Amino acid sequence: MAELIDMQAGTPASLNLHPLASKLNHFGAGFASIGIAVLLVHIYRFEQKFNPINAILFLLGITAFGICETKAWLASHCQYSHDAPVVFTIDHILLAVMEISYIQFTYTRSKGIIQSTFSSKVTNWFELLANRIGPVLFILQLIPSIALAVLKQKESLLLASQITALVCALILLFFDLTLGCLFFKFLLRNKVEGQDQPADFQVIARFGIFSSSLVVLNIIICAAYIIIGQDNAIVPLLISVSSLLNVTTFGVLLGMKLHLFFLRKQEAAPLSKEGCKVSMESLKEIQKSIKTSHTSLNEHFQSSQLLPQMSPIMPASRDSSASSLREVAACSSPNLAVATVELARPRSQHDRLNLKSFERPKTMG
């Protein structure tokens, strides 16, 4: 996003940046480091996983931090000229990685809104731009930039770097203007027409308008630098403001992520409480049913003559009850007599009964 400034700033002559520019870049680096720390703490404490969207956002923060530090170093040591090709090359690599991270993160978060608004064909074009065309062009722009940093003054390389930087800036401008209009239309339709839109889509739209506006403003600053020329005294501040806008964009996207996480957690909390309430009520009903069944079984066995050994009230009547039970069983079924002996036997007094005394009655063959 700031590459148009970078390419122009160090070509004909070195720029004497104001000391304020270096301080602003260090301030931006500090702000970016705080954002990175907040992101890592959030991932460790709440999510406990480093998924692709977290990795992209983390990479965006790292590159924003690195850009501010390289700008500050170049400003204070070599007046942002090509006298430090290694640092200058690192700066442009960080810019390309940041642009790729930004466009992929923004598309991933906005994919649901894009699919609900546009046709599948337009959605596929957005995906192609965010995941294929954009990253390839952002990487290709490094070739003339690195060559220009190493070979210094080359007219053809300077022109190539300016063209590639301009193409990348136009891609970002188109992408962010389209998404910004889409988000604004989405929120307006939700407010005017009263359509019930998902709460997370509304959060994405609000933060998306803010981040897209920052990127468009950053591109306008690049264009303003080209118009006013490099000899203007405000140029050092424009470079620093561009770096600060990169860091602010990272902060807005981080705020979007945190807001979405706690919003979804808040929405899931009532459902969890309701589920726990239903589960506790079901458990109480099951316990009540088991208690009722247990009471009924105890009453049944205590009053029944078939199992006198279960009754603790009349231990003396067990032998007579067992004899009566055997007589009834012998009259009804010969095979039931032997089984009845086992049922009628007291559980704690097996040795008192002699199974040999119970003979099966003879049947008429």
Which features does this protein show?
365 residues; disordered C terminus; G-protein coupled receptors family 3 profile domain-containing protein; transmembrane; Rhopdopsin 7-helix transmembrane proteins; membrane; elongated
Second rung of CATH, namely the architecture of the largest domain: Up-down Bundle
Order of helices and strands: HHHHHHHHHHH
CATH class of the largest domain: Mainly Alpha
Beta-strand residue fraction: under 5%
What is the overall shape?
elongated
What is the third-level CATH name, the topology of the largest domain? Rhopdopsin 7-helix transmembrane proteins
What number is the mean pLDDT? 76
Structural class: mainly alpha
**Biggest sheet descriptor:** none
Number of folding domains?
2
Count the strands?
Answer: 0
Termini separation: 109 Å
The percentage helix is over 70%
Low-pLDDT segments: 4-15, 305-322, 324-365
Number of helices: 11
Radius of gyration: 40 Å
Keywords: Membrane, Transmembrane, Transmembrane helix
Transmembrane segments: 24-44, 56-74, 86-107, 128-151, 163-187, 207-228, 234-256
Organism: Rhizoclosmatium globosum
Protein name: G-protein coupled receptors family 3 profile domain-containing protein
